[in-house]
Amino acid sequence: MSHHPIRDVFDIIRAEDDNAWQALDYLNLYRFFVSMLLITICYTPIAEEILNPDQLQGARLYSLLHTLLSINLVFVARRIKRSFTLQVILSFITDLTTLVVMIRQMGGVDSGAGVLMIGSVMMSGVLLKRKGAMFYAAITSLLMIWLSTLELLNANAPLSDITSTGTLGIVYFTVAMIGSILSRRTMESETIATQSAERLLDMQRLNELIVEQMNNGILLIKAHNNIHLLNHAAFHFLGRDPGTESVIHQMPEPLMAEYQHWSTTGMQRGHPLQLSPTAPETIARFARLGIRDTSDRLIFLEDAGLVSERAQQIALVSLGKLSATIAHEIRNPLAAISHSAQLLAESTKLSDSDIRLSSIIGKHCRRMNDIIENVLQLARQKDADIEPMDLGMWLRDFIQEFTETQNLTNTHIDLKVPDYPTPVIADSSQLQQVLWNLLQNAMRHGAVDGQTSILIALEHTDLDEIDLVVADQGPGIADDLAEQIFQPFFTTCDDGSGLGLYLCQQLCTANRIQLTLQQREGQGCTFVLRFNHRPANHQPTSGYHNSEA
Asked: What is the pLDDT of residues 19-68, one digit of tens each?
């Protein structure tokens, strides 16, 4: 492969960057310092002692020209950052010319002028690649040897000047190598520092993005207990609008009181705080960024409702695993007790009080079995297998199955469904479990004077959503208890487990169905299952189909 000689010359110069321009500035400043030194020598009485009278005028003229050229190179390199390669070449040509003329004008090699080239040779190791620096050191050394040889041939110098010239050449090569090594290590260090800085910047941006996307609020507290930084979620917990108020300095009073208690005692109470009338209840947690007392503080704000829900989920999972472990051990003796109670109740020799006691035993055995079944059902709850279905047709089949398997004595079910298709998306098996539970609750708690009337209807909302309504005419639930019925283990009767409605809500959530209670005390309970997701391209019509069971 052929090489172009001019291209090879340019290839020995290092790549242009800010550090390369800075190194060129240093070389130009060094040259300016040399020119000032020459001016001092040539225009002071020192010149008459070290220079011949015939050379004095030429040396002064040369020192002035060299000074003007040095100033020009400094200006060009600092102000006009163009043609880096050309400026480097001109700089080193200027220095080589300086070497020849300066030695000739100052009386030869033995004047010591060659020492002034050490700085230029050193900078060649920075501005040129290693082979370029060695080439420049070689050119400089050859020029010194050439000048020394000329003086020797003209009998103007002793033979010992050759030895000193060779020593100076070794110095040139040494400083060129040192400059090259230092430059390479500096560039490697800068590369590592730049990569580390980029990684740190990427990490900082990633952290900022994660903090901004977190659901928990984060506040950075500095001196005087002022808020220095906060993420987007913190505005929500503080009841502020991040779009209209970008800076918040003062903490709300409830948060300040909790913060001061932690600062004084080091204890975190974890009480729910109402930081704003429009914000949810919040739990605040505190931490120091450093180990010193003067270190910045962090405040983490969490939704108290979500924390409570997670705690309930953990408790239910733990309870489910525990129940799954001991269910077999409980069921065996429980089945034996229940069977013995049944046999005992069939005996003709029992008194009325013994029969009542055996009935109580059987009743509580069934209750314990129901509790175990509900907890196990929560523990092994599977994901919803959602698929399109016609809700009206499915309800007719479900009511028929329910009436055939249940004892509906003194129970009346009124079913109202449209006579046109009502497509929804749900898991039919889980929906059956929910509706079965709701109907059993209505039969158990919705009786009035021994009669139970249940209404099941499909209704369309203004947003073209479908509501499945299950209503009874019983006494209903007290208003102060209505908000608690979907909580686990909450029950209003002695023989209930408190898990039925909670399980219904969990199954509805898995099917993206909104389950709510709409009731007025003394006028029965109305549960509404709202289906928000429906198959596309559905056009509702009108008309209802009524059936009774």
From this structure: 777 777 777 787 788 778 877 877 777 767 666 666 677 777 777 777 77
Alpha carbons within 13 A on the beta-carbon side of 57: 2
- Euclidean distance between CA atoms 439 and 450, whole angstroms: 16
Give the contacts of 58 (CB within 8 A, at least 6 positions apart): 105
Q: What is the pLDDT of residues 81-139, one digit of tens each?
A: 667 777 777 777 877 777 777 776 666 666 667 777 787 788 777 777 778 788 888 88
The CA-atom distances, in angstroms, between 211 and each of 240, 249, 302 are 18, 19, 14
The per-residue pLDDT of the chain, averaged, comes to 77
Using the structure block, give the residue that is written with the tokens 């158990």.
444
Q: How far apart are CA 383 and CA 386, in angstroms?
A: 9
Cα separation, 279 vs 419, whole angstroms: 45
pLDDT at 428 over 60: yes
Q: What is the pLDDT of residue 468?
A: 92
H helix or E strand, kind and range, residue 173: helix 160-213
Q: How far apart are CA 529 and CA 435, in angstroms?
A: 10
Neighbour-count burial for 46-83, b at 16+ CB within 10 Å, e otherwise: ebeebbeeebbeebbebbeebbebbeebbebbeeeeee
Whether 474 contacts 445, CB under 8 Å: yes
**Placement of tokens 């270190």 in the chain:** 295
> Phi then psi for 202, rounded to 5 degrees?
-65, -40
Q: Which two tokens stand for residue 548?
A: 């009774």
State pLDDT tens for residues 203-241. Answer: 888 877 777 777 788 888 887 778 888 888 888 888 777
- Please report the DSSP string for 326-377 in residue order: HHHHHHHHHHHHHHHHHHHHT-TT--HHHHHHHHHHHHHHHHHHHHHHHHHH
